[in-house]
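Attaching the record inline, Q. Sequence:
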Amino acid sequence: MKLGEEVYTKFGKAYKDGQVIFKEGEAGECMFIIHEGEVRITKKVQDKETTLAIFGPGEFFGEMAIIDNEPRSASAISAGDSKIIILNREVFENQIKSNPKIIMSILKKMSKRLRNADRQIKTLLMQSNSSKVAGTLIFLANRDGQLQSDGSVILDASATYQELVNMVGLPWLKIKEILMLMNKAKILNVAGQKLVISDMDDLQKFLQYLEMKEELGI
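Structure, as predicted:
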């Protein structure tokens, strides 16, 4: 969803890096559209603040609160300096009336986000750190990975490592240790600045094995 400079001038607000846009549990009467910069969406899972998503220009967030009148289900924090368009319920409804296609765009985006959030939260509730890393890596590969003709999937290594730290909530050294074990098992390898998942089926089987161990208490 892209809105122009004129809309930002009328409804926009600038946020500094790390500034909280809204907090989980707060009442919400507005939705937000990113004009410039990025926003990190976080949620408390087992008393840990976990990153669910990072949105960029043109992305919207906070729409649930003005649709269902429920408290915010997550927090939003500016990742770097950002410019955000803020639409209250009245303006949002007027936008829908003038452009009905917006409804379908929002519904499709919401459906995809809910599915992704459900998968992520399920992964983060696992007891095993290895399960959390493997499950989150599958999520990132499906979201950001580049599928190759040989069936492998390539990810940007540094960006993926940072995402894993943000989303899993473990220290980098612990995540690195788990990735090294996966490397020894030939599930993935690092080639320069690229992290290569050899076969997504093998990674999925590895996660299923970890889940089975967890269920059996092994």
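Residues 116 and 175 are 21 Å apart (CA to CA). The radius of gyration is 19 Å.

More tomorrow.
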